[in-house]
Specification:
The complex is a heterotrimer. By secondary structure, chain B is an alpha+beta fold. Chain B is 27% helix and 32% strand. Chain C has two domains: 346 residues, TIM Barrel (Alpha-Beta Barrel), CATH 3.20.20; 39 residues, no CATH class. Chain C has 14 helices and 16 strands. In chain C, helix 2 crosses helix 13 and helix 10 packs across helix 13. Classes of the chains: A alpha/beta, B alpha+beta, C alpha/beta. Chains in contact: A-C, B-C.
């Protein structure tokens, strides 16, 4: 177990220090006094447990490839973006756009997160134990997003591939374009059971539905707004009297 | 056209006359202006400067007073359409470059040289104008110097555009140039971004600032500075450069402009034409230097 | 004169209501939407033909066209990158995606880059392994969609281009027709087969320049500060964009004028968005000089570069290099029929259809593109030497004069036969009696 005091290092040197410790075979590293530093644990590869005792700034664990990073406090925006592999565990809340473009690995947010979680996600798993904001999994291209709490509006907007699991009772009113609500398969139930057990989440997979992308030749969104075809003469209320 | 001359002559009693004689032989190469840079020794800092209007005298003196004071007489004498002055100053050595730059900031004022070891004399018209209008002397024991006769190409016939040039980046450096640069504007933009103030539109002025800038950055290594100049400057050129302890040349890679050399135990003569060497070396054959060559001698 | 002998007016010019206008109206009347078209805008726009280069004669000695050398080697990205990109000609191959182009076309372009010693950009959607294997230097684009982009790309990129927009359709979200998404492309871009792609308009991992500054530090860390990072910007609000890009911390900027091409763009976007390269380039150079950054930031100009004269003039204005896209395709055989958006290409360049792709002979095409680049470089060298330069990069804006008042006004380059400019002027010769 090695300790690093982030208060006395710049972020680019921090990642190098962690990397060097890992190269020496150290398997557990604790970083204290992060004080919302940006770019912490960016691009780290290998196998170790890195714990950050307080909160982090932007881009925590971007491009992470292998280690397990645990943040005791809150994580800033874009945490885990472009992640390749490994685990990012956020004990409290996270900012917006968490897990954008993730390729693989797992992100777990025990608290809640803001909008656009899993934006453009391409693989991997994002588990939000609290609530997720709007536009979750927007334009996703793979992977799975699991939200235990409520989801925001326009969830799954224009997903191309991937799945969103939710138990939000009002989810039908909040679906984004080009997705549909579906029941989950037995395999997906097993997948969720294993996931919940692994991360100590108290939830029943049976209560979850899946949001899947509508896989037709072309997404059915209104390409050309305004639509200009809903005017009904009968309901037309002139603003002033017209002399005939 | 233009013609250049460089001389290192250890045993002479009348160095400036020897250098001027070399230039006289090539007067035909440049009837528009002439100039020489002499290296000697003086206790005081000597300023050679021109002003375009007599009224600027006060501005010059007030700037000098910010840095030190005038020693002895300060008289501006008219020649052509400007006033010249040759003033001794009590200013410390480390303030020299700053004073040089500050004087050049005044519109209508151009420093020709500001140094304890270098004096630059230049004047429009033939060499006789130079010797008639100015007291050409370097003080004690000069053994090396460079000179120039000018045929104006692109810029106007202003005496400040005559060679040799010096630069606030390295005030003890003087250069003369034969040729024409084709990337003058790029060089000028680069130098202006480093804080340089240009006093003319003459491309040779840019060369003096560029080489002086390199000297400033490399602590006075003339050979490295001339090598840098060879890479950065484009066009055709032969440049002679001298400081109190070094003299050297750079010749462009196309080998168009002439640069000839005679070297023996007594002297080093560098020039543009064979005839230039006849004053001190009789019929000896002067060797032509190689294209892209840089050579520096220590004095 | 009797009525029978009168000549009828033909009223044929129809400047406003010409055949193309009628066709566009018919399209909208039939389909109720905007038309999409491949290639670049066909409109007449100010281009480099309006500029002339001044040769040396008695003043300024020209160099021997045949025997004296002119250096063409170009160094890009030296502001921060520890390994700036060095290419042997200032002409690079612009980003054109595998998807928009066939595999054979991409391989040919990569091979051409090795034949002449230049850099090729992968374009959107990941990197074709065969392109990476054959290219001399590889530039990787980082787009908002991140389709096909992962950490692996950072490990072999010789240069990165963070894309904010392309000249052909700036400010629009990306668009790839479903018909062009084959199994191969689907795997590379990590997207499903056959669905029309309307991709992300802005990057999900940096909303705004303030976040981008931190993202840039991250990219530097991930590439060990070795790799030059460029921002690719469509020419629009050039001054403001350049200022922000410089503040973000890029090594260089790729400026894409509105004459640039693309696989498919809405007609209105290609024809009415953005500004041409020539004035944009002048604005970019002026802005960099105002910021005191011109010597640090590398500038690559693209969008309608056709020949060595365009290259020489772009360099004279202040670009360090140019990128060719449409030109390279034409060298391979493209005849600019502008049907790329249909997914069909008789020359096997802009298509995924197997039978059409057979028409492209990869090695012959590579040689043709290489020849084109060699020829253009020779043309630029010819012009530079006539102006007395022994290095292409010594071309200056004062070597140029403009043939028209419009070009003088929009570039600040003096009108031929004078020193006349409208407004500030660009360079020392403007209004200076030189």
């Amino acid at each position: 177990m090695e300790h690093i005091d982030a208060a006395i290092i710049e972020s680019s040197k921090l990642n190098l220090s962690i990397s060097n410790l890992m190269k020496q075979g150290i398997k557990e590293i604790t970083v204290k006094n992060a004080h919302s530093m940006h770019n912490m644990c960016v691009g780290l590869t290998g196998d170790a447990l890195i714990s950050i005792t307080d909160s982090t700034g932007l881009y925590t664990a971007s491009f992470l490839e292998g280690p397990k990073v645990v943040i005791e406090g809150n994580a800033g925006w874009y945490a885990g973006d472009d992640m390749m592999d490994g685990e990012l565990i956020i004990k409290n809340n996270a900012g917006c756009n968490v897990g954008a473009y993730i390729n693989g690995g797992t992100i777990v947010i025990y608290g809640s997160t803001g909008s656009r979680v899993g934006y453009g996600m391409k693989g991997g798993t994002i588990l939000v134990c609290g609530n997720a904001g709007r536009w979750a999994a927007q334009m996703a291209m793979g992977g799975s997003l699991v939200v235990i709490g409520t989801v925001g509006n326009l969830i799954g907007e224009s997903m191309y591939r991937g799945i969103v699991f939710t138990q939000d009772p009002d989810v039908s009113a909040k679906l984004g374009g080009n997705v549909f609500l579906d029941s989950i398969t037995e395999e997906e139930k097993t997948y969720l059971t294993d996931l919940f057990t692994k991360y100590g989440v108290d939830a029943d997979p049976v209560r979850f539905s899946a949001i899947r992308p509508a896989l037709t030749g072309r997404h059915k969104y209104v390409l050309f707004k305004p639509e200009l075809n809903k005017f009904d003469k009968k309901n037309y209320q002139p603003t002033k009297e017209v002399e005939v | 056209m233009c013609g250049i001359a460089g001389l290192v002559y250890k045993n002479t009693k009348h160095f400036s006359a020897d250098l001027l004689e070399m230039l006289q032989c090539i007067q035909h190469r440049g009837p528009d202006a002439s100039g020489i840079a002499l290296f000697g020794d003086s206790e005081d800092l000597v300023l050679r400067v021109t002003i375009k209007a007599k009224e600027l005298e006060n501005q010059v003196l007030s700037v000098i007073n910010e840095f030190g004071k005038v020693v002895g007489n300060c008289e501006f004498y008219a020649s052509g359409n400007v006033w010249f002055a040759d003033i001794a100053l009590d200013v410390s050595e480390d303030k020299k470059a700053q004073l040089h730059a500050r004087l050049n900031e005044i519109k209508g004022v151009t420093v020709h040289s500001l140094s304890r070891k270098l004096k630059i004399f230049k004047e429009n018209g033939p060499i006789t104008n130079l010797t008639n209008h100015h007291v050409v002397s370097s003080g004690n024991g000069a053994v090396h110097g460079i000179g120039h006769v000018r045929m104006a190409t692109e810029s106007a016939e202003d005496v400040n555009a005559a060679h040799p040039f010096s630069s606030p980046f390295f005030p003890d450096l003087a250069i003369v140039h034969n040729g024409q640069f084709t990337n003058y504007f790029k060089m000028r933009r680069f130098l202006e971004s480093k804080g340089c103030i240009f006093k003319t539109m003459n491309d040779s002025e840019a060369a003096s600032h560029l080489i002086a800038y390199a000297m400033k950055e490399n602590d006075g290594d003339l050979e490295a500075a001339l090598q840098f100049a060879l890479d950065e400057m484009d066009g055709i050129f032969c440049i002679l450069a001298a400081t109190p302890t070094q003299i050297g040349f750079v010749k462009d890679k196309l080998g168009v402009k002439p640069l000839l050399l005679i070297e023996d135990d007594e002297k080093i003569m560098i020039g543009s034409e064979q005839i230039e060497f006849s004053s001190l070396a009789g019929d000896s054959f002067a060797e032509e230097m190689e294209p892209g060559e840089v050579r520096v001698w220590n004095i | 004169m009797s009525e029978e002998r009168m000549k009828e007016p033909s009223d044929s010019v129809k400047a406003l209501w010409n055949k193309d206008t009628l066709a566009e109206i018919d399209y909208k009347a039939t389909y109720g939407k905007h038309r999409i078209r491949g290639c670049a805008t066909p409109r007449q726009m100010p281009n480099f033909d309006d500029l002339m280069i001044l040769p040396g004669q008695l003043t300024r000695m020209p160099l021997d066209t045949y025997r004296e050398d002119c250096e063409t080697r170009t160094v890009l990205g030296k502001r921060f990158a520890k390994k700036p990109l060095i290419i042997e000609t200032p002409i690079m191959i612009a980003g054109m995606s595998y998807g928009a182009l066939s595999k054979e076309a991409k391989i040919a372009l990569a091979k051409a880059s090795s034949l002449v010693g230049t850099v090729i950009s992968n374009g959107e959607g990941g990197i074709l392994p065969e392109e990476l294997a054959n290219s001399y230097r590889q530039s990787i684009q980082v787009l908002a969609s991140r389709m096909g982009f992962t950490k692996r790309n950072l490990e072999y990129a010789d240069m990165l281009e963070v894309l904010y927009g392309i000249g052909a359709k700036p400010g629009l979200s990306g668009h790839l027709m479903g018909s062009k998404i084959t199994e191969d492309i689907s795997k590379m871009r990590q997207i499903p087969v056959g669905i029309d792609l309307h991709s992300h308009p802005r990057s999900g991992d940096a909303f705004g320049a303030d976040d981008m500054v931190i993202k840039m530090e991250q990219l530097r860390e991930l590439t060990n500060w070795n790799v030059p990072i460029f921002a690719k910007i469509a020419a629009g609000r050039v001054r403001e964009d350049i200022k922000i890009a410089v503040k973000i911390g890029v090594d260089g900027i790729i400026l894409d004028g509105c004459q640039a091409g693309t696989g498919a763009a809405p007609v209105m976007a290609a024809d009415h968005l953005g500004i041409p390269l020539m004035p944009a380039l002048v604005q970019a150079v002026m802005t960099l000089e105002e910021m005191g950054m011109k010597d640090e930031i590398s500038l690559i100009a693209s969008g309608g570069i056709r020949n060595g004269a365009d290259v020489a003039k772009a360099l004279a204005i202040g670009a360090d290099a140019v990128a060719i896209g449409t030109g390279a395709m034409v060298a391979m055989g493209c005849r600019v029929c502008m049907k790329c958006h249909t997914g069909h290409c008789a020359f096997g360049i802009g298509t995924q259809h197997e039978d059409e792709r057979k028409n492209l002979d990869v090695d012959a095409a590579a040689e043709r593109v290489a020849n084109y680049i060699r020829g253009m470089t020779a043309e630029a060298v010819l012009l530079a030497k006539a102006a007395g330069k022994s290095k292409l990069k010594n071309l200056e804006r004062e070597d140029l004069r403009s043939l028209s008042l419009e070009t003088t006004a929009m570039t600040g380059i003096p009108l031929v036969g004078s020193d006349f400019v409208l407004g500030k002027g660009f360079g020392f010769t403007a209004n200076n009696n030189i």
